Structures
1.
Amino acid sequence: MPVDIKNMTIMAAVVLLSSCSKSEIEPEPYTFEAPVHFPQPVFDTGNPMSREGIALGRMLFYDVRLSANNKVSCATCHDPQRAFTDGARLSTAGVSGSALLRHTPALFNLAWATNGLFWDGGATNLESQVFGPLTAHDEMGQDLYELMDELNAVPAYVSGFQNAFDGPVSSQNVAKALAQFQRSLISADSRYDRFRLNKPGGSLTADELSGLELVRQKCQGCHAGELFTDQGYHNNGLDADFSDTSHEGLFLGRYRISYDVSDLGKFKTPSLRNLAFTAPYMHDGRFATLEDVLEHYSTGVKNSATLDKLIPASGMELTGEQKKQVVAFLYTITDQEFVRDPEHQKPSNF
């Protein structure tokens, strides 16, 4: 799309009033409302959310200017209709066209992700996480100085950053805006949630209830609470050999960050929510279906010194009927409203 047309469409999409002067507008605070059955999040990032900041982050999330070749946006790999994943085992959508070495993680309920991000916890928070994909040569490959020049050339962005942060376009404020948008992505309206809160449309079948009980018994040591993740790192028996130190140690798990040998093969626990949208599964996307995942836990666990103590080395030995029940329940944590929410989609005139 020619640059002049793109600028005009962005300007039309901006919910911030570019005609207002610095003194005429103040960011409107965003009241974060945690679902009643969720724990309260802890915000300690120095990046208070505002409606202007979220709107700006949403624009940036869908803007291909954030990539070196102006063809890749955050949404290229984080599709809202797939719970912000991409459906690929290992993405080749980055500027280099090379396959990445880890599976694209989902983006939701990140306001509670306070124990590191990425599969190995290599980023402390969303603000620092932004710079990983933004500058990685196989992902967006962007030069931050060039990005500032590109954004400053768009009047709507200049006013948008001023209105959101009372400051200029900067890489720091890009990260803050993107973090605010991502923290606003809450998924908590599945059929299970309605069951949990005794709301209309929340009935579960006998098989789904049995699956819920099995998940509580066998899975919630790691996939804990209503978030269905403990935000921790576990070796779930995918591999037994971690001697391959190529590719910057990406296959070593949490050890790559901590240098603690007890962290070898440990990866961040993903949420069980929205699994119907986020296949394939695991940090490297090795399992195509939920049935494959359960077969691993039942018969495919590989023992090693760091295998999580919650996982039997011999496997969980689930019966065929139990596997069906677990899958049935997991589909009840699918939030159809989340993937259809217009507030998460690309701005209509962008």
2.
Amino acid sequence: MSTKLGVLAMYMPGRKLEELSFYRKLSIFGQKLGVDVFIFTPDDVDDNRMRIHALSYNKATRSWTRRWVGFPPIVYDRCRYHGADNYRKITRFRQKYTKLRYLSRPLANKWIVYRLLSENENIAPHLPSTVHYRSRKQLEQFLKKHPVVYMKPKSGTGGRGIVRLQRLRGSRSYLMQGRDAERRILPATKVTAAQIPVRLAGWGLQSKYIVQQGIPLELKDGRVHDFRMLVQKDGQGKWQVTGCAGRIGPPFSVTSNLHGGGKAISMETLLKSRFGTEERVKTIKETAYTLGLRVAQHLETKFGTYCEAGIDLAVDPSGHVWLLEVNPKPSRDVFRLTGDLQTYRKAIRRPIEFALHLLQQKAAPKAGTRHLDLVPQPRQSESQRDRSD
């Protein structure tokens, strides 16, 4: 008997789905593990008949087909909102179907997440100084403490709307560069403090920013870099670091996001090029892995059970590890782009294995009752599954 896993997505313009390639791979791995994966959006739900016109992948014909299905026992939320209309749709859906069980869940905005993480004494030393943007005066005071700051939308993703401000020596002016709300690279411009809010007002984001201490991210060629770590629950319900890889931004960009033109590189290669010795690389990597697990575990105590988080990290020239951001709906393409296909496949497979773990817990018999094996057990070894496509 197979079990169902519904993937909750959101249509882009033209009824396109943003992660269709990922959903195809998820469906193929699901079939291997006895899980029927289907994709749906709030627009595909027939409220009157309590059914879903879902999208399913047929491996034999290598094609997507539509079919009517009932609501699944568990839902993997991959919604990226991209606009107020989509946000309203998903909010209405969650409010109407409150009894659905979610494999993943949205976290709070960057400011709330920062404050919650600050409560943990083991995580706090790794957090850049951050404030909620209120006024030009506050921004000027922050710039006096930190020669470089980043301004980020509280709820932004993919590098959209991120601004880098650098105080110019012997001047009251700043070098402003970044990406606009459409991810376009903004050329470096000399501005005064009074001009900064005016620029932000043009994007309609000025009241929704955080201001963060800038961590030195430039490589020798001037490009910025950081690290994307993927932390996931495994088939036993335990947090594991699935992998971590470096990202290097394109020329003149203040962000390293892959969707914004960045390139992927292995963590070890990037660290070794900066810090040289194997021992130093090993120490930094261990610190980063410990931090990633602590972040995932701490946020779970605040928001409840969820299956994965993408954690953006920086390592400054002294080797100190900094936590830049947490993404509850992470991509895993960074591992494919580095050529680490074993980690990439594991990153796709783990949400399905964790879904099976949750369903097995639900189906576990109480004392004195007969066990019903409702959920199939994966039979392949991990090495066999990693060779699957």
3.
Amino acid sequence: MSSLPAPRVQPPVPTRTILATIGLLLTTALLLYVVLETRQVLTWCVVGAFFAVALAPVVGWVQRTVFRGKRRSLATLLVVLVAFVLFAALITAFAVPLAQEGTKVAGQLPGLVDDARNGRGPVGDLLERTNALQWVQDNQQRISDFASGLTTPAAGVLGGIATGVTGLVTVIVLAYLMVLEGPKIVDGTLALFAPATSTRIRRVATDCARSVTGYLSGNLLISVVCGVLTYVVLLIAGVPFAGLIALFVGIADLIPLVGATIGGVVAVLAGFLHSVPAGIAVLVFFLLYQQLENHLLQPLVFARTVKVNPLTVIVAILVGVELVGVLGALLAIPVASIIQVIARDVWDHRRGRLKDEPTVGEDRDPALAPHERADDGTPSGASVVEPAARR
């Protein structure tokens, strides 16, 4: 009678493995906590990095042409100052007319309110048709309570403005320092790797930087197109302050997918305040333009500047909006392009070679007839190109 084999006894898990696992979990939890607590600062760093990548080629060009390859600090300072001046000029071009017209409206406000109460003028006619005056008279107490409650979050609004100004200054300083010290940091980091690996990393990083620059230039081009077309439509419709409204629409359009909608709401309201036909014309224009921009203009422009498939552009924006909101919409396309560059490089260096005999279809039929293939399996008249050279 044969005896049963003795059961296998699993060796105990080493204490070192248990401690290492616990340490890894604690480190991961600590890292997540730090990221959540410093997400505002990390957001500023990411935005500053994108602006630094966009300004780096300009700084390099100024350094080579103006300073003959020297004094990068002066070249960086010059480019950042010019960019800041352009940004300040853009804000001034928007804020000054707005302040002037706001002063005029404030002076005419008593007359407008009196006309509205008596049902005169465009506002009075609108209120009379919608029975808004009667609703206001019936709900005066609620409106008073709501207005008094608006004073409560005033400190929060001021705090938000202060945070925005702080963030803007922080982003500018970070972008300046990143552009200035970027080459030293890159060279010092790449010196840790072997020459072949260092060259590969530098090439991939250059492609990623080009994708970010292409995204920013493409997004700016789309915003210019949107602003110009909006100006033309408002000018034809006779809407006042067409240039100011078009400038706001162009700035808002920098936000993919939803930017045109945000600017379009303002433009449509301005059109209806001018006249009903003008409002309808502006509304029809934005309904058509938004579809054209989201599904044709943005995918085509970004496919050329960022080298990303149009379908990938739309999917990346939708995913970015769902995950991070407006910032995700702004960063989705360059992030998708960077992932594509890295994935292509990994594929080319690991397993990206073509098959000896390319096939198509469910039946795996040869893609080329026998007389079209050379003896080594490649297409006749074609040469074998290394993956890096194909790019």
